[in-house]
Amino acid sequence: MITTRYIGELESRAPLFFTDFLIVGSGIAGLFTALKASEHGRVVVLTKKTLKDSNTGLAQGGIAAAVHEEDSPFLHLEDTLEAGAGLCDVAAVNVLVSEGPARVRELMEIGACFDMKDGNISFTREGAHGRARILHAADATGEAIRVALVNKCVEKDNIDIQEYHYLVDLLGNDSSRTCHGALVYNTITGQQSVYIARCTIIATGGAGQLYQNTTNPDIATADGMAAAFRMGAELTDLEFIQFHPTVLFGYETQRFLISESVRGEGGRLYNTRGERFMGKYSSMLELAPRDVVSRAILSECTATGSEYVYLDMRDIPSARDRFPNIYRTCLARGIDLEKEMVPVSPGAHYTMGGIKTNTRGETGITGLYACGEAACTGVHGANRLASNSLLEGIVFGARIVDNAGEILYHRQINQEEIYRNFDHAWVLDPPAEGISPADAKHEMQATMWNKVGIIREQNGLKEAGAKIEHLYRHLTRGDDPLAYMEMVNMLTVARVVIQAALWRRESRGGHFRSDYPERDDLNWIKHVSFVNL
Ligand code: SIN
Q1: Of the residues 126, 216, 256, which should be mutated to test ligand 1's pocket, given the most ligand atoms within 8 Å of the CB?
Q2: How confident is the model at residue 413 (pLDDT cuts 50, 70, 90)?
Q3: CB within 6 Å of ligand 1 — which residues?
Q4: Is 59 exposed, middle or buried (0-12, 13-18, 19+ CB in 10 A)?
Q5: Residue 425 C-alpha to ligand 1 middle, in angstroms?
Q6: Could you report how far apart the first and last alpha carbons of the chain are, in Å?
């Protein structure tokens, strides 16, 4: 349970730091926004582990943008809207596709190198894109971008990057709906500190760790979404979870992605009986939208009594050179993808919903902004088009800072005002005895995977709701404060995912209900949002 405690108690033990921009999260959205913000003032970037730990660094396929001379923002918009299954915010998508190419060029200027062919950018194709428009750096595009951003950020004197600093909670004033910064926990020293900022930006990524099988690293625990929610921000579209169809089969929670670009370059799916099956499910075959391919794989697994299907890369010319990272990882597991097929199954990959923002990154709480996967700008609708997420991070991160002049002018904070204005921080006050964070995580991930996964239905969702509620109410601190706080955040967001999934009685994009298998445009062209559930 979460109770309030006055900030006065914190003042005596937590040192105060002041900055203009406080950015929580160090993936592409956080670091790109930090670079932009550093043109206007002092920036602090908090990251809960190290700069190496983010979903960005794991992104393989690439970044989509209408950069090719035969492509256009309009074509990119069409594909994004089609994938989003009727729920995209068209104005936000228009911003994404029209501002995207300029932001991608900026990435290149700061040192992100994408693959070239005969002196031109080499584009690849992924599912539901009408043409090849994905810029990539072999099969480790996110890592190339991450390294370029980190190198640039560390050059800047006015960007202060704090690793192992975890967001406990946002600090603010309830009645005026204002955020003044964050209470932060150093996971190495155990020290708490207060960061006061004129502008606090949540860029903490998604919620993949809610699920038993995920491509996301262990840091993807929905922290920013939960903290913003506690402060009164709206969480929206959280029933839409994207499951990536081709994740290397295994029993660990975080599993290795086999990029969709593998299928874009000719990879084919076979069931364990050796039948190429996608023709039964979609005329787009292996490049059908991810939800269609994921359900097709589940259906083939059920029909064959297997836990996986096979991805065949043997006919892709020079697969080893085009996908060196995937090649090496498979080989380390004893699979030579040039000679044999790779066992794959789906895993939770991306959270389409999140903290509701407008196209300026505003959350409705003064001083609080969000970008990247933590935010819901409306560009993804019910299903994100492949490789639009890295693009979203830079386009909308930059847009927050476009208004920096206004933000900094209106938020001249002085220390006295801060003391007067803090109502409280949310401080965690668990029962002395109960379910440990480790046990709760295990149970939550299994429940979410089995009942709130690729295929959902009312009874299962209700059972999941009851289970998550039980865990939420009986969670105890254990001896690891970080694990406990992460667990509170994940359970907070899991409750919203389940309620949203129960509420939406139709199937669309990343939300499939076997009891309502059809898309219902008459009743459901609308969003499910929660405030303070
Ligand atoms: C992939 O490489 O398949 C992932 C790209 C994405 O999720 O956008």
Answers
A1: 126
A2: low
A3: 59-61, 259-261, 349, 386-387, 389
A4: buried
A5: 37
A6: 13
Dist. CA 263–CA 275, nearest whole Å? 16
257, 294, 344, 388: residue to mutate for ligand 1 pocket, most atoms within 8 A of CB: 257
Ligand 1, residue 139: give the atom nearest the CA.
2
Spatial distance between the Cα atoms of 404 and 408, rounded to a whole number of angstroms: 6
- Distance (angstroms) between ligand 1 centre and the Cα of 216 equals 12
Three-class DSSP labels, 277-346: CHHHCCCCHHHCCHHHHHHHHHHHHHHHCCCCEEEECCCCCCHHHHCHHHHHHHHHCCCCCCCCCEEEEE
The token duo for 38 is: 């550093």
Secondary structure letter of residue 14 according to DSSP:
S
Among this protein's residues, is 290 annotated catalytic? yes
Round to whole Å and give the CA distance between 277 and 378.
Answer: 33
The best mutation among 28, 56, 60 to test binding of ligand 1, ranked by most ligand atoms within 8 Å of the C-beta, falls on: 60
pLDDT for res 222:
98
Distance 138 CA to ligand 1 centre (A): 13
Write down the pTM of the prediction.
0.94
Which residue is it, tokens 């070239």? 116
Label residue 7 by pLDDT band (50, 70, 90): very low
Which atom of ligand 1 is nearest to 126's Cα? 3
For residue 158, how far is its CA from the centre of ligand 1 (angstroms)?
Answer: 33
pLDDT classification of 253: cutoffs 50, 70, 90: confident
**Which one of the listed residues 290, 295, 456, 513 is annotated catalytic?**
290
In one-letter notation, the amino acid at residue 243 is: F
**Of 348 and 11, which is predicted with more confidence?**
348
Let me know how long the chain is: 533
Q: Give me 51's structure tokens.
A: 């700069």
Going from the Cα of 387 to the center of ligand 1, the distance in angstroms, rounded, reads 5
Of ligand 1's listed atoms, the one at least distance from the Cα of 385 is 8
Token code pair at residue 186 = 């150093």
Closest CA to 290 of 272, 269, 274: 269
pLDDT, greater one: 5 or 182: 182
Domains of the chain (ranges plus CATH)?
A: 4-240+352-417 (3.50.50.60), 246-347 (3.90.700.10), 431-525 (1.20.58.100)
Mean pLDDT of the region 76-100: 97
Res 10 pLDDT > 60? no
* Residue 95, SS3 per DSSP: helix
Q: Are 30 and 24 in contact (CB under 8 A)?
A: yes
- Extract the tokens encoding 402: 């476009």
- pLDDT computed for residue 1 by the predictor: 34
- Which of 447, 441, 427 has the alpha carbon at shortest distance from 475? 441
> Collapsing DSSP states into helix, strand and coil, what is residue 455?
coil
Looking at ligand 1, which atom is closest to the CA of residue 64? 8
Paired sense of beta strands 342-351 and 120-121, if any: unpaired
